[in-house]
Amino acid sequence: MSYFEVVMFTLLVTCAYGVTDFTEESCETLPSEIHVTKEEFDELGRLQRTCNGDVAVNKCEGSCKSQVQPSVITPTGFLKECHCCRESYLRERVITLTHCYDPDGVRLTQEGYNSMDIKLREPSDCKCYKCGDFSR
User: Single Gene Ontology BP term (predicted)?
Assistant: First the structure.
């Protein structure tokens, strides 16, 4: 079978079975929860304390329109158009971890050591973008 015959057969199968049908985009910003652990070390590299907590954050989830179609122009014989659901904007938040322990695992209760503030970046909005496009 020649290259042209393969391309024509693929095109025929693609059209006959509706492979080019697009699914609806459903890229959403959804609430989620993660467990965060942060360690703090002194200037000599010794562990001073470990703080952790469960944090409510946003995540991007969903599907975007993508397609693969036969092409006589591209070297692979297929034109691929891929889109991915990811953040369109990140916001920075300060999170307070309230479960802090010394290196021996003893819970810290002294003011100033019993909690730790950390910065976290999370999606505030999600959209479909061309895969591999980081130029936003």
Answer: G protein-coupled receptor signaling pathway
Residue 16 token pair:
């006959």
- C-alpha–C-alpha distance, residues 115 and 110, integer Å: 9
Euclidean distance between CA atoms 15 and 105, whole angstroms: 63
DSSP element (H, E) containing 102 = none
Superfamily (CATH) of domain 3-130: Cystine-knot cytokines (2.10.90.10)
pLDDT (tens digit, 9 = 90+) per residue, 36-89? 999 999 999 999 999 999 999 999 999 999 888 888 888 888 888 899 999 999
Query: Structural domain boundaries of the chain?
Result: 3-130
Q: Report CA-CA distances (Å) from 52 to 44, 49, 77, 92.
A: 22, 10, 51, 19
β-sheet with 28-41: strand ranges across: 28-41, 47-61, 99-101
User: Using one digit for the tens of pLDDT, what is the confidence trace for 24-47?
Assistant: 789 999 999 999 999 999 999 999
CA–CA separation, 115 vs 100, rounded Å? Answer: 6
